[in-house]
Amino acid sequence: MTDSTKPHFFLPTIHDSVGGWGPAANVVPEQFQDIPYAPYSKADKLGRVADWSNPEGQKQDNREVQGRQRAGFNRFNRDQHQAYGASFASAFAFTHNEDESSFSVVDNRSSGTKKQAMKAVGGGGGSNVRGNRVQTNKQGGYRTVGQRANGGRYQQQQNNRRRYGHKDYDKPQRVRNASINIGADWKVLDEIEFNRLNKLNFNIPQATEIATYGSVNVYNKAYDRVNTKNEKMLAHIDRVKYDTTTSEDPIIQQYIKENKATVFATDDVLSLLMCATRTVYPWDIVVKKTADGKVILDKRPGGVFDFVTVNENSFDPPAESDKDTMNSWSALCNEATYINQNFSRQVLEKEVIKFENRNPFATADTEAELASCGYRYREFDLTSSNASEEDGKIQLIVRTEVDAAVKTPNGTSYVTVRALNEFDPNAQGAGASLPWKKSLDSQRGAVVANEMRNNAAKLARWAVQALLADAEQLKLGYVARYNPKENSRHVILGTHAYKPRDFASQMNLSLTNGWGVVKAVVDMCLQLPEEGFAST
């Protein structure tokens, strides 16, 4: 066969259509004329060139994938956009379908292990099996993730929502009413943005003790040996304790007349101000300014100061409902207040240590029924380091309290006594706490870490009150219900003593920030007109 008879193939001539559809020769640069055309859209987003954290073929959780499809671009899929040009139908699109029919999962476990796994997941052939799956947290504690029930059906808690830290943005938001009703005729004198309180700082002032009143009983060290196997029933002890407001305190009234200080308060009010950044529930204080420029920080009788909160900082705090249930917010506050009052009276001996002066609130009829309480009036200097002589000194007198005394070889030290309470580990608002009767002795660190997270505001206030009173110890008791379904009987499961400053450091409580908040409020009040007003 000669060359003339061999078949030949010639490429046809392609003519550019200048007036037709598509890129023209005089429009596309010469170096880009051989690149195929792909459709595109301005809405297309370029993702990562390679995402090694999510390799191809890795199966994702169905709930997460469905959530991305519903929500579109959000915090879960911000780096996983559609491919370039995928918004339009393209002739260049290629779909690869893997043939997975020839693949199978090989389980190399023994038959006995498989049966145990099937019983744990399936509930043993349709039986009603209940159990909890727990996950270890950073503090060494545990939190319940889900619950198996009714024949192995897995029920997700929190409506299939992920759980993060106690201050994260996916908390269930609740609308809470103000602690007081603000009238339409109220006049706003000044405002403080809540998020700016964390930036305030003031050096811890030196304290000077002015006078002491009342008497305290000696702490019974036998309660240090109480544990879950040697529990003690909480007894109801009738005693009288006066918690008079700042303006009605006869000792403070005398100090105001004698012009001993500029600002007056109690440890209840001052500790709430110093721990304001940790509070969740609404509160208010009453500020009164006299004609001679004295400022009185006072509380409202029957308000939030008279009750102990429960799991205020929990991810899902107790329900706030009007129904009279034992695990509602109001019922738990009453229960915690009752426990604290009786626990601080039960752990004492009969021996009494009297202070310099008698109880200023007692009468001849009630002196024999007084509860153990020592009042220590202490003075703090709030004058700024750069203040001039014309500004004058700012002295703060605070009425602090101690609950008991402990005899040591070096003398007598004073103690602040408080109690943490457990109501029902499985109820709403329990904060995923461990059952105390099973875990308090063996996992006390996890229990304490969980309480510090769920009751950050309450524990911080107790630490500040102990520091203001110059107490050597903060005694914490652990009191639980005798029966989780009954709130009338309680048992003491253990006690633990802390040094107040170490306890505050363990909670990451900044004392300089707390005094900075107090200093800012005091300076604001000193600049306002001489008239009574309420500050929320």
Describe the structure.
The chain is 21% helix and 21% strand. The chain is an alpha+beta fold. It has 2 domains: 24-89, no CATH class; 194-535, no CATH class. The strands form 2 sheets. Strands 4, 5, 6, 7, 8, 9, 10, 11, 12, 13, 14, 15 and 16 form a 13-stranded mixed beta sheet that branches. It has a 3-stranded antiparallel beta sheet with strand order 1-2-3.
List the helices and strands and how they pair.
Elements: H1 62-71, H2 111-126, E1 131-136, E2 142-149, E3 153-156, E4 207-219, E5 232-233, H3 250-257, E6 263-266, H4 267-274, E7 285-289, E8 295-298, H5 329-346, E9 348-354, E10 373-381, E11 395-402, E12 404-408, E13 411-422, H6 436-439, H7 444-454, H8 456-468, E14 473-483, E15 486-498, H9 500-506, H10 511-526, E16 533-535
Parallel strand pairs: 4-12, 6-8, 6-11, 13-14
Antiparallel strand pairs: 1-2, 2-3, 4-9, 4-10, 5-15, 7-8, 7-16, 10-11, 12-13, 14-15
Family: Belongs to the eIF-3 subunit D family.
Organism: Parasitella parasitica
Keywords: Cytoplasm, Initiation factor, Protein biosynthesis, RNA-binding
